Amino acid sequence: MKKIELQIKALSPLAISRQKPGGSISECEDYIPGSVIRGAIAGEILKQSGQQFSDLSENGGDFQALFLGDEPAIFKNAYPNIRKIEKDDFKQEEEVKILPTTALSSKTNPGFKTGKNCNGYNCNGVFDTLFDRLCADCYGYAYEPNCPVDGGRVDSSGITFYSVFNDKYYKLSSQKRLLTKVGINRRRATSEEEILYSIEVLNESESKGKKPKPVSYISSIIVPDNLSDTLWQFIDKNSLNFRLGGSTSRGLGKIEIHANLAKITNNIQSKIELFNAKLWERWKKWSVFGNSIEYLPKQTYFTLNLQADAILTEKWQRTTVISPAMLQHFVGVDDSSLEIHAAYSSYDYRSGWNAAWGLMKDVELVTNKGAVYLFSTAHPEKWYTALANLELTGVGDKTYEGFGQVEVCNEFHLVMRKDAV
After folding, report:
1. Which residues does the chain have with pLDDT short of 70?
2. Beta strands 317-319 and 312-314: pairing type?
3. CA 72/CA 312 separation, integer angstroms
4. Contact 256, 240 (CB under 8 A)
5. How far apart are CA 269 and CA 381, in angstroms?
6. Cα angle at 16 between 362 and 84, to 5 degrees?
7. CA–CA distance from 137 to each of 32, 50, 381 (Å)?
8. What is the pTM of this model?
9. Bridge partners for 98 per DSSP
10. Which terminus of the chain is less hemmed in, N or C, by CB atoms within 10 Å?
11. Interacting residues of 168 by C-beta distance below 8 A, sequence separation 6+
12. CB within 8 A of 21, min separation 6: which ones?
């Protein structure tokens, strides 16, 4: 497998709509789902069939292998970029990640210390609680931390996307606005009375400053080796031809895509070793409370952190927890020593519009991105390669649309309360 990195520059507002099941209001997403990118690229390929992709028949061809095969290309979600684009220059950006749901911050002054999110003032910082919660459970204590700066209450940080640049943590987010439109009378070709509506869109540029800069989003595509060059060349050649989201006939959704072939790296073993070193260091510090009620098994620990919403199924039923049996099934590893020690997750519902069929998609129960699952095993050597592959392919259903993307041992779990960032 190879990876094609995408940097998507917005040239017009993006109407990436999401309508909650049972609701009548269409909201705008905070990011560009992988399914939207996938549909845009597939549509452009079909539009130009016979040129770059010569064979689009059901029985074979590049299109079928990319989108309909047993191992289709995986289109990951596009998340807000940390930097703005300088003029027309595209730059290699830092990786954008999802903050774990175990991260907490001050209830009255939340946010990263370096972010200046609180009316221009430095915030009290964000820290992770996974290790301390695990230790507190073993000692039989209720874990209720307070803010390390002012001693006040803490709560969820409210941060979804973040990135690390020059050892500093930054909150990333998308800016939105409402576009008001008027209905047109088809017979007279004039504005229709009493038909006024608004569309929520993602801004195409910064709202501040005399010369606002375009905003961009970062994504990637995992492609089979034999098709990576073909798809990369197609995207690069048609960088200005793609349209994302709805209302494209009204001037919305115009983008520019910069594609780059990237090398896939594997540092799973080093991340797991660093994670375990910090965990046992923390466990040793909790020994000041005496003997614990339960002892942590002397195994190797690792986490799965959802970097996108996931559609999880176990025994034909929807679930929000990845069980040991499910994980072994995902990676094809047989390990009777695998245990799950903690799961922090929540759920939501997702639907959408299938442009190819002209129909609404089924309503899916999804596990929200940011969920954390803590596992341990007595045979870590079985898992290094399997987990590296899992980071590429994802977990659950519809991974080719960006669902179920995971990261192993997110580094933010190493940020303790006294070292809030």
Report:
1. 19-26, 50-61, 82-94, 114-121, 207-209, 356
2. antiparallel
3. 19
4. yes
5. 9
6. 140
7. 38, 62, 28
8. 0.88
9. 161
10. N
11. 112, 114, 421
12. 349, 351, 363
